[in-house]
Design brief:
This protein is of the alpha+beta class and 317 residues long. The protein has a single domain, classed as Aminopeptidase (3-Layer(aba) Sandwich), CATH 3.40.630. The chain is built from 7 helices and 13 strands. Strands 1, 2, 3, 4, 5, 6, 7, 8, 10, 11 and 12 form an 11-stranded mixed β-sheet that branches. Strands 9-13 form a two-stranded parallel sheet. Helix 2 crosses helix 5 and helix 3 crosses helix 4.
């Protein structure tokens, strides 16, 4: 019998995510966590089209940080993600309108001899990537982001009984202390409340070049481990400074700060016309709790401007 494909088996993950969404939802009186593709509320095509548009608008309204940190998904991108990957969403209903409180898309990949994702170029590796976790700005409901991490990490921890030997990763611009702190806080919340062996570890970083010039800041890659022990307490500070050669200077600071961890020779692959170089660490015991990001203003001056709002007057009729 032909071996079941990784992507076919990944479809079973929707059930795992749905079960965890139901469990976490029980902790709230009026908030529901769901897998968008599986929520009966959004099976009607008109309602689905509206919530897809609203998710794009949610990112537009609530991502108020540096424009380099995240690519705001337009409606077309959210549709494409919907067709390929589970979208985890937290929401509540107010007078039949949907108030989105948090969103994340969980992507999955399989590196083979012929196809490798250049941003995590680990040979013959299957992995899930937690992307775009965003909670509503100034919401009266707190810790939505941590609960999304709870849904995702608990589901994938259980999913290992069905589909073993996959990684769970998270990526963040090296200056993006908010996202890095969010990932660290999500893992710490689970470690303290559910499972003492869940940790987020820095396992490498990547660069993106065009014509031999860095075109964005280096990006950290963290991996979530489900059966780990805390190896040691230590502090690793990445202190950045503004300069005419900012991205290259950031790379030099990262290489200096991680030099003792053993930086492997970079693996180069193309993404279009750009060259992605993935650097894996030999020592992968650096807990996210151990690092600190000191941006010194290098995260400023590039504030993202939201698109003009496209909100409808009446929704979900």
């Amino acid at each position: 019998m032909m071996k079941e494909s990784f992507f076919r088996r990944c479809e079973n993950s929707y059930q795992m995510f749905t079960e965890e969404c139901k469990r976490v939802s029980e902790e709230f009186s009026d908030v529901k966590f769901c897998v968008l593709q599986c929520d009966p509320r959004f099976q009607n095509m008109k309602q689905l089209a509206e919530i897809i548009e609203d998710i794009s608008e949610f990112y537009n309204e609530n991502w108020l940080g540096n424009a380099d940190y995240i690519h705001i998904p337009d409606t077309k991108t959210v549709w494409e993600n919907y067709l390929k990957y589970p979208i985890i969403m937290a929401y509540r209903e107010n007078d039949e309108e949907i108030d989105i409180l948090g969103v994340s898309t969980i992507k999955y990949y399989q590196n083979t001899a012929n196809t490798v994702n250049p941003y995590y170029a680990v040979p013959d590796k299957r992995y899930f990537e937690i992307t775009g976790i965003l909670a509503k700005y100034n919401s009266d409901i707190k810790n939505i982001g941590k609960h999304i991490y709870e849904v995702v990490l608990e589901a994938l921890k259980k999913y290992r009984a069905i589909l073993p030997e996959f990684d769970v990763i998270f990526v963040a611009d090296c200056r993006n202390y908010m996202s890095i702190n969010g990932a660290s806080g999500g893992a710490r919340y689970l470690r303290e409340s559910i499972d003492p062996k869940i940790f987020g570890k820095i396992v490498g970083f990547y660069t993106l070049k065009n014509n031999d010039k860095l075109i964005e800041a280096p990006t950290f890659i963290a991996k979530f481990n489900f059966d780990d022990d805390y190896h040691q307490n230590r502090e690793i500070a990445f202190e950045f400074h503004d300069s005419p050669n900012l991205f290259q200077d950031m790379l030099a600071i990262i290489e200096e700060s991680l030099g003792n961890e053993g930086i492997c020779i970079g693996v180069e692959n193309y993404d279009g016309n750009d060259i992605v170089t993935y650097y894996e660490l030999e020592n992968q015991s650096i807990n996210l709790d151990d690092i600190s990001i000191i941006p010194n203003g290098t995260d400023l001056g590039n504030d993202r401007q939201p698109w003009p709002s496209r909100k409808r007057v009446k929704k979900y009729e």
